Amino acid sequence: MGLFDQILNAVGNPNQQANPNQLGGILGSVEQLGSNYGADPGATQMALSMVGNYVRSALQQQRATVGPAQAQQIVNQYGGTTPNNQAVQALFPPQMQGHIIQEVAQRTGLNAQTIQMMLPMLIPIVLNFLKTGSNVQNPQQGQNPVLNNFLDADRDGDVDIADAMQLASRHLGQGNR
Q1: Residue pLDDT tens, the chain, 177 long
Q2: What is the 3-state secondary structure (H, E, C) of the chain?
Q3: Are 55 and 123 in contact (CB under 8 A)?
Q4: Strand partners, 16
Q5: What phi, psi does 135 have (nearest 5°)?
Q6: Between the CA of residue 34 and those of 43, 44, 118, 151, what are the distances in Å?
């Protein structure tokens, strides 16, 4: 089952945190982020996708070295829709942040300073999207199918985080954001 399917299942499952309002808030935050920085929606989506891939790698490393509970803890602690520099620092050392900023800038056409300002917002948005699968009663429980699907992605062309957000937007009837 793909990432988008896991999100739809989470929306329909009262034991998981996902709901249409939460998804709408996440999607609105992405749209607002691009507008705030004068970024083309396509560039914002590409930046989100690229940052999502880096977040995947960082969470996979956390899961492998510390355990699945650590990956879930990061998602719970830093997932949100407001800028959070601590989220960036929790996942990436400064040299890695610089690498991410440069690569995203090169691929999106956005300048590095804009990416640096967007990063504290992009990472919490990705984490908040992953939080949709968390258990309502016990968010630390490691049975978050959205997070697990995201981390176990085998890179076979399945939907990435930006694609899953676009599909969620269409599903919620909010157009093509």
Answers
A1: 577 778 778 888 888 888 888 888 888 888 898 899 989 888 998 999 999 999 999 999 998 899 888 999 999 999 998 999 999 999 999 999 999 999 999 999 999 999 999 999 999 999 999 998 888 887 776 578 888 888 876 555 444 676 666 666 666 665 444
A2: CCHHHHHHHHHHCCCECCCHHHHHHHHHHHHHHHHHCCCCHHHHHHHHHHHHHHHHHHHHHHHHHCCHHHHHHHHHHHCCCCCCHHHHHHHCCHHHHHHHHHHHHHHHCCCHHHHHHHHHHHHHHHHHHHHCCCECCCCCCCCCHHHHHHHCCCCCCCCCHHHHHHHHHHHCCCCCC
A3: yes
A4: 135
A5: -70, 135
A6: 8, 6, 9, 26
Q: How far is CA 20 from CA 9, 17, 100, 165, in A?
A: 12, 10, 31, 12
The span from the CA of 37 to the CA of 32, in Å, is: 9
Burial code (b: 16+ CB inside 10 Å, e: under 16) for 104-136 equals: bbeebebeeebbbbbbbbbbbbbbbbbbbbbbe
**Whole-number Å distance between alpha carbons of 141 and 137:** 9
Helices 94-108 and 112-131: angle between axes, nearest 10 degrees: 100
